[in-house]
Amino acid sequence: MKRRERLMASLRGGSVDRPPVCFYEINGHDEKPIDPDPYNIYGHPSWAPLIDLARDRSDRIVMRGVPFADTHDDPLAALTTREVFEDAHSRHETVRIQAGARELVRRTRRDRDVNTVWTLEHLLKDVDDLRAYLALPLAPFGGVPDVSGVLDTEAALGDTGIVMIDTADPLCLAADLFDMGTFTVIASSEPALFQRLLERFAAQLLPRTKAVSQALPGRLWRIYGPEYATPPYLPPRFFRDLVVRYDRPMVEAIQGHGGFARLHSHGNLHAILDDIAATGCTGLDPIEPPPQGDVSLAFVRERYGQQMTLFGNLEASDLENLPPADFREKVLRALDEGTRGSGRGFVLMPSACPYGRVLPERALANYRVMVEAAGA
């Protein structure tokens, strides 16, 4: 089977010649070794063999957001200032928003040798900040999806993979405004106020999802954010109000146009699996094994495999740290549990990828274990 054909069959619950194997963010298309940007970690020669391996042997799922053309101007632009400066190792950004009498401040840092952005200070610090933020103007939804990025990527991939449309859910956008401790306290102690914040983001996200799914039917999507409402951060009962209530309409919009909605949720799943299923989603990742998660892949496959294509079950820390012989045992266990009995499909995949400038030799060896064990 061609790689695109194999992935689509796995999403639809069809038969495949072997389980697809995906490296998650590493796809052999987006990594640009010759890009001179000092923040481009993939310019280090240690990444070259993995980029080649992803391009030539993995079943590629390339994530893309969909921007909107002709959108309304940002209603907060006149209230917002940005300051950026660089030192020898990092880029620092400070965002200030004037919200009535209050100044809301967010500070971030990106290091040259680490492919992530660290939030040093979150925008909202307390309930009064939240009330001030909710009083800010909100732009009405408008604009037309610019689908060119997705279509161009699909053309470049050909039959070697697929594009996955990537979107946050309302909870992700809301929770990210706070540090984790403040978020959990406000979400649990001020439920009505926090619900207003979720409604604010849903008013933008749902119509965007409807417009994109109509313009790009039949694609795989990833919805990220549900993990903010999972144990131990919040009791399971919060998942229904903070996730299912808002993600189910997004799932329905995607799948109403023939797409496949995959929910992304790290960590503990056991107590919220029925609620995840209640969204109607037809995919779930990354289903981390114990002790990072609290449920086996075999359990999820047996109870929810008819509804969902399952992705993952390889922990990123194992990928980077285990000797290849030990990692191979985990790969073989995931392949066995993920394909046992009947179900829609299973895609072998790690929960994340390395993000340091130098790729460890052990990680490269373990990526090779993945493709060899899967028969890629």
Return the average pLDDT rounded to an integer.
Answer: 96
Largest sheet: 7 strands, parallel
Spatial order of the strands forming the largest sheet: 1-8-9-10-11-12-13
CATH architecture of the largest domain: Alpha-Beta Barrel
CATH fold-level assignment of the largest domain: TIM Barrel
Number of separate strands: 13
Q: How many separate helices?
A: 13
The Cα radius of gyration reads 21 Å
- The poorly predicted ranges are none
Estimate the helix proportion, in percent: 25-40%
Summarize the structure.
The protein is an alpha/beta fold.
What does this structure look like?
By secondary structure, the chain is of the alpha/beta class. The protein folds into 2 domains: 320 residues, TIM Barrel (Alpha-Beta Barrel), CATH 3.20.20.210; 52 residues. The chain contains 13 helices and 13 strands. The strands form 3 sheets. Strands 1-8-9-10-11-12-13 form a 7-stranded parallel beta sheet. Helix 2 packs parallel to helix 13 and helix 7 runs parallel beside helix 8. The longest helix has 25 residues. The protein is globular and about 60 Å long. It starts with a helix and ends with a helix. The mean pLDDT is 96.
Any key phrases for this structure?
19% strand, 376 residues, 2 domains, alpha/beta, 7-stranded parallel beta sheet, TIM Barrel
What is the topological layout?
Blueprint: H1 3-12, H2 48-57, E1 60-64, E2 68-69, E3 80-86, E4 90-99, E5 102-111, E6 117-121, H3 127-134, E7 144-145, H4 148-157, E8 161-168, H5 170-175, H6 180-189, H7 191-215, E9 220-224, H8 238-255, E10 260-264, H9 273-278, E11 283-285, H10 297-304, E12 309-314, H11 316-321, H12 324-339, E13 346-350, H13 361-374
Parallel strand pairs: 1-8, 8-9, 9-10, 10-11, 11-12, 12-13
Antiparallel strand pairs: 2-7, 3-4, 4-5, 5-6
Helix pairs in contact: 2-13, 6-7, 7-8, 12-13
